[in-house]
Amino acid sequence: MADKPAPKPGHFLPGGEGEQGPTDARKQDGSAPLAAPTPRLSGEAPPAASQLSGTRIDPRRTTLSGSRLGPPPAEDRAAAAYREVFHPEPIPFVPKQRSKGLIALVVVAALLLLGGGATFAVKTLSSYDGFVANPMGTPSAKPSDAPTSTEPVTKATPETEVVAKNPLYAAGKMPVVKCQEPAFRPTSKENVRSYYEALTACMDKAWEPIVTKAGFAFRSPRLIVFDDGEETACGVQNELAAYCQDDQGGSVTMPWQKTVEDYPKHKAETRAEMAQSFGFVYGVHVQNLTGIAEATDNLADTAANKTAELEQDRRAALQAYCLGGVFYGAAKASFPLRGELLRQWNGLIKRRGDENTKDKVRDHGSSKSLAAWMNQGFTTTDPGACNTFVAAPAKVS
């Protein structure tokens, strides 16, 4: 690029020093260059190329005429060139002959596409109506031949029926359970926890088939071994075992300090206490899994008076004791309640009666009712025998 000489003035103009002479196509045919459709000076014909030199313009051109003051003449070559580039003649449409088979295929494909699109649109609009209250989303009238689908509405079961006619009662007897008394003796918090963990595993294995056969989902309860005064899922607790319905699926909360303290002095009684109290709270867990616990709470909350409320509480507590008896009856060959252990077991039942408690609140049942329902569960090993909610009031005193 550095070896080429720089262009001189007039290099690209006709007649300038850069003109290539006879190699220019316009000069080979002897014609003059095309005039641009821009203002003309005078109405005379443009000068020939030989009359131009450099960039000089003919001094005779003193008036404006041409395209700025009106349309150029029809024979003007520049105007013709302009029309050819910017206003070409339209290309005529010539229809082509199509195959009838191809047309039919296109029509069928279009119908299939429209049908699928209509189905998609209906589904989309139906979904849309579920989220936005848009009167334009669903047509006001359906075609008479349109298929209608109505989902069955689940009928709510009255709570009195939940407790009195629960499917748990028809699930059948609990099969024989092979579960020995856990060998962990309550000499520390860790041992107490291990004892209840082993007992939980045994009861889970025994109750899961029955709960699922009754049509309910089974889950193991969460075990909490608490310190006295500790706040748990059941609130601040001291000494007493409890069960709570919570977002964890149900929690069994058990004390340990008094148990460790009592064991050296009353070994058989402490062992009976651990087994019996855990059987009771696990019985409440079964009630929770089957909907009985919630229904019972609601019935107690809407009772006509305090007496009716306490009776509802007693029915629920006595059933939980009975369900605990079902397990120990099914496990009696491997978890024997006999000798001193059995005597202490029965002694605990007598002392647990509402009439023997400090506050005398009648919410768990008398010693007589406790003994009767727990023995019924133990001897029958059938949850159906624990339907306290259809028993006469005298049976749940």
TrEMBL record:
Signal peptide: none
Domain of life, source organism: Bacteria
Name this protein carries in UniProt: Neutral zinc metallopeptidase
Region named Disordered: 1-76
Residues annotated as transmembrane: 102-122
Any coiled-coil regions, as ranges: none
Membrane topology field: Single-pass membrane protein
Record Pfam families: Zn_peptidase
Subcellular location per the Swiss-Prot or TrEMBL entry: Membrane
An example Gene Ontology CC term for this record: membrane
